[in-house]
User: What shape does this take?
Amino acid sequence: MEQKKILMNHETVLQDLTAVFDRFYRDEALVAYLTESIQYSIQAGGKRIRPLFLLETLQAFGVELTTAHLKVAAAVEAIHTSSLIHDDLPAMDNDDFRRGKPTNHKVFGQAQAILAGDALLLDPYLLLAEADLPAKVVVALVRELSQASGSHGMVAGQVLDMAGENQTLTVDQLQRIHDLKTGKMLTFPFVAAGLISQQSDEVISELRRLGQKVGLAFQIRDDILDATATFAELGKTPGKDVVSDKSTYVKLLGLAGAQSELAANLAAAEASLIAISQQTAFRSDEMTRQIERLKID
Assistant: This one.
């Protein structure tokens, strides 16, 4: 299998990630309309924060990036994109825009959007199977990604999130929703990097704590931005949490309280980076910069 070495430059890596998807969906045997709708969403931009966290963590452990690692990064981004397509449907969050563009179902229809999302939930496991990595690592990655995305993770979180509309939840209930819906998919990149670089169980446990704190911080930040940012800043409709009467950190804690909770989780994430650096040759500078970008002044 191809083992092209990758130099870690954000722009280059994003281009290489795009190329992974282009190659994967280029097969002439595939159904063109399906791949068109998939590519519409998968190539719509976005921060690619999950792939970048995975690849940056690998590099922090001194791993030289290859195409195999890009395939793992593409797998988590594909599942994340599937969740966005499904979240935007009328039966769920009912949004007309995503990343400043019409949502998938607005362009291709609801049935096709559902099927594109289905494909993006399943195709990642073929990407993992085709990655040139040791078999035991691939099996561990499949297990981790399945737990993060299915009934143990993201999908369960979406169910609880929808059930919580028009209710006032406790902070603990809200945290459970976000741990499942957002947190586990943001924890996967850190744990996956630990599995690929064959770190000890202790270090992987710390990576898991790091991911959990980053995941919760990311969701609190999203709650804050939904209440304070504009359409141009978000690329999607702001204020939908209020319209849906969702329990959010802003609703339960107030804006200042949510900002304080965000800061606390980011500080805990930075503490985990220090702990990992003390146990290994982990170079935490770039990861610290990425986490600091989640801060809101």
Observations:
- The chain has one domain: 5-292.
- Residues 64 and 216 are 29 Å apart (CA to CA).
- Strands lie at 5-6, 65-66, 97-98, 101-102.
